[in-house]
Design goal:
This protein is mainly alpha-helical. The protein contains 4 helices and 4 strands; from the N terminus they run H-E-E-H-E-E-H-H.
Length: 129
C-alpha cells in the first residue's frame, strides 16, 4: 500500500472515532450499515490471481484490506471491481474494460457482498474466545 494512502487511512479510520472505545469493532463500529467496494488494477494477468497463480487468489490478496480495514470499522464490503493488467490492453480492450467498470458501479445496489465470512460471526467468535 502506498505511504500516502496508508497515512490517509490512519488519519480517517481513527480509534474512538469510527471503532473502539464506546463504538466497538466490526458490526458494532461507527460505519455499520454503509457499503464499501474496492476498485483496483493489477500489474498481472487474471491467471496470476488464482489459487495456483503467482499471487494467490484475488480474495486472499485483498483479505487484509477487506477484513482488517473496511469490515473492521463496520463497512459491508461488496465484491471488488478488478481490472487485470490494464497496461497490457489495447485501446478497444481498454474501452471495454472502462465500460465494464461503469456498468459495475451503475448496478452497485445489486452488487453482492465479498466472499468473506459474515463480520458478525467473527465478532461473536472473538467475544466467546
Amino acid at each position: 500500500m502506498a505511504a500516502v494512502r496508508k497515512g490517509w487511512i490512519d488519519r480517517v479510520l481513527v480509534m474512538g472515532a469510527v471503532f473502539g472505545g464506546e463504538l466497538g469493532i466490526f458490526d458494532e463500529a461507527a460505519l455499520t450499515g454503509r457499503r464499501a467496494v474496492v476498485l483496483a488494477t493489477t500489474g498481472g494477468a487474471p491467471s496470476s490471481f488464482t489459487p495456483d497463480g503467482a499471487f494467490g487468489h484475488i480474495d486472499a490478496f485483498l483479505f487484509h484490506v477487506h477484513r482488517g480495514m473496511l469490515e473492521f470499522v463496520g463497512y459491508d464490503v461488496l465484491e471488488p471491481v478488478i481490472t487485470y493488467g490494464p497496461a497490457h490492453l489495447d485501446d478497444p480492450a481498454r474501452a471495454e474494460t472502462l465500460d465494464a467498470v461503469r456498468h459495475a458501479f451503475a448496478g452497485i445496489d445489486g452488487r453482492s457482498r465479498s466472499g468473506q465470512p459474515a463480520v458478525s460471526s467473527v465478532a461473536q467468535e472473538s467475544r466467546n474466545a
